[in-house]
Amino acid sequence: MFRNESRGGGRRRPLVIALAVAAPLCLAGGLAYRATNGSGPAADSSVRADKGASADPWTPGSGTSADGADSTGADTTSTGSPTARSTAKAPPPTRPAPTFTHPPKPLAGKVVVIDPGHNLTNAQHTTEINRLVNIGTNYKECDTTGTATNAGYPEASYTLDVSRRVRTLLTALGAKVVFTQDGNRPYGPCVDERARIGNNAHADAALSIHADGGPSTGYGFHVIAPKSLHAGIADTRKIAAPSYLLATTLRTHFHSATGEPFANYLGGGTGLMVRDDLGGLNLSLVPKVFIECGNMRNARDAKSLTDPAWRQHAAQGIADGLTAFLEGKR
């Protein structure tokens, strides 16, 4: 039977035609089935897309990333849109901290030389202090021991104490204060060296601070200015006038600060003298005066001179007088 079918070609044609018609019909049916029942490649891709949307909200072209930044880099997490953020008010600019400048001190740039009269240890160096030095008009001792109150308070202690108080006041006003001695020398210095210290410092003003040893009945203070002269190595012609102005200015302010009267035992009660026998004045090249703050041998004055509170008033009066002179006031 099989042999006859292989050899008889006419009998096979109906079967081939039937298979050719059935195959397309089956394929079309299968495709239709998948479309209606959610299977097939199209359905798989949509499912994958749905699953992807639930797992990652960002899709290309959406303009917003999962971390809240849009495609331009703007932050939309708080406002929901870059436009809302761009319209928010910027914080006010930070203002710089204010700067304060202090006005210059009134005596800034000024040099004052303070000469505390005598020296506590001069008495231990009598040979040295008795040596004569040239002061232009004559020769005088290098220095002296100074005087004292009847109770033994030394002039040298008074002068150094008040000088230090004056220095504190003037330094606070900006002045540079130079001392001729600050209790750190065995004796002196000699009167000619005291003058040189002021000259070498190019002082704007110089002052020797003393207390007098007059008669016990005399009281009060006085200021001594140099006489205008040219004698030997002494030449005060250029400084006599400004020194006199310094003397009168100092006299006014010292009297105002202390209430101390003008001396009643010399100077005609004016509280002012002009002399040519003091080496510290004769040899000065800068405006310079002496002040005798009171009479240590007078009981009334001695009480004041030994009182620390009064000495502070004395220092204030001296500082005020020097300041007024340096500022061109009276």
- State the distance separating the first and last CA atoms: 158 Å
> What fraction of the residues are assigned to beta strands by DSSP?
5-15%
Order of helices and strands: HHHHEHEEHEHEEEEHEHEHH
Radius of gyration: 55 Å
Largest sheet: 6 strands, mixed
Number of helices: 11
Mean pLDDT: 82
Low-confidence stretches: 1-29, 31-84
Strand order across the largest sheet: 4-1-5-10-6-9
Count of strand segments: 10
Describe the structure.
- The chain is built from 11 helices and 10 strands.
- The chain has helices at 2-7, 13-37, 41-55, 82-86, 126-129, 155-172, 191-200, 240-258, 279-282, 299-305, 308-326; strands at 111-116, 132-134, 139-141, 176-179, 205-212, 222-226, 230-231, 234-235, 272-275, 288-295.
- The strands form 3 sheets. It has a 6-stranded mixed beta sheet with strand order 4-1-5-10-6-9, sandwiched between helices.
- Strand 7 (230-231) and strand 8 form a beta hairpin.
- Helix 6 packs across helix 11 (308-326).
- The chain is globular.
- The N and C termini lie far apart (158 Å).
Summarize the structure.
40% of the residues lie in helices and 14% in strands. The chain has eleven helices and ten strands.
Keywords:
40% helix, disordered N terminus, two-stranded antiparallel ribbon, 6-stranded mixed β-sheet, 330 residues, single chain, alpha/beta, 10 strands
Layout of helices and strands, plus pairs?
Elements: H1 2-7, H2 13-37, H3 41-55, H4 82-86, E1 111-116, H5 126-129, E2 132-134, E3 139-141, H6 155-172, E4 176-179, H7 191-200, E5 205-212, E6 222-226, E7 230-231, E8 234-235, H8 240-258, E9 272-275, H9 279-282, E10 288-295, H10 299-305, H11 308-326
Parallel strand pairs: 1-4, 1-5, 5-10, 6-9
Antiparallel strand pairs: 2-3, 6-10, 7-8
Helix pairs in contact: 6-11, 8-11
